[in-house]
Amino acid sequence: MTKTYMHSSGAYQHRLLSYSMIRALDIQNDSGTGARAWTGPTFECLNSIISFSYDSNRTQKFDDSARRYFVDPPVGAQLSYGYDDWVPPPTEDGKLDDLLRAISRARSAGNLDLSQINAIALRGVMTRIMVPNPHDGCEINVMIVNDIMYLEEHISDERMQQQDNMPEHQRKPSYYGQAFYSYATTQTPPTGERTGVEGGPPSWGGAVRNHVSWCHVVEKELGGVRLLMGGEIHCTRGLGKGTESFVQLKTSLPIRKSRRGDSDKEKYNRKLIKCYFQSLLLGTPVRLSLDFRSPSGEVTSVESLKTADIPQTVERNLEDHVKWWAQLYADLRQRMNGGKPETVWRVRLDTKNSHMDIVKLDGAGENSEGRVGFLPRWYWDELRLDV
Predict the structure, then answer these.
(1) What's the mean pLDDT when you consider all of the chain?
(2) pTM above 0.70, yes or no
């Protein structure tokens, strides 16, 4: 049996209402001249700590073997190529283990001081917090150990099953995004005109391999909170390894007018806002390569967009997303103050009903899986040495 502590939903509800109110005010105050300055948070990244790769077996390696390099993807490319042979990977459980291994390695090398860190999370969790899905919520497990907040997305068995059994109309667009990645990247720095992998269409970079990815751990201050985050980097432009060379890849249907008004534009803007914060969180200031495709998966155009220009494109002031995160962090600190370090709290963000609650999980201390709370035992033992 769990004890349930209902969070006063006023702060969370107020923040969601504030988003709607601010957007309405922005629209009312826009003169239509294009002169209005729409702003967002700065892209400053305090430090890039360590990088690592995943191979085709999802084995973590502390090297850059999975790094990819950006090339201009061809207009007219068929993103459906290879779909019939594609086996979608199982949904990942969202655990922090690999990020914590990278952190442990950086600490052992003397490249990281955790005493300066306030929170640790994967970028995916932070994106879900800062850009809430208006039709869905999320659940996040939280612990505070040695004064550091650890955040890990909780993915229920039911949700994992739903994602693993994705219907065709959702699975195919997911593949299109992966196929665009194959067309737009190479394993080695480009030296001239690209011919593509033998047996595939022009510029095809090879079979879609979902498990292979190149990841970075960065230190960043956001809303007065110093974060350690890990996340995937799609590719780089040029040979540099700094965040200024990072490139994000995204696909989108073209914006169309409909009887429902600007529904397509709203979806497109939400995607851009999500892309903006995915870039912001890992300190990627330079560019987003956006592929517009037909419903059947043909690349119709490719746009290169500076991520810092996205607030102007979507006509939104995006600092409020950072304010919401800072408010949530402070609120969680207050609610969890004085608890045992092995205590796990589950935060439920119900964006559809503008509500948040916090559940203290009983029996979430040391368990048979070799964990204390949701942290692996080996990492917990390392932390206890710091006390």
Answers:
(1) 79
(2) yes
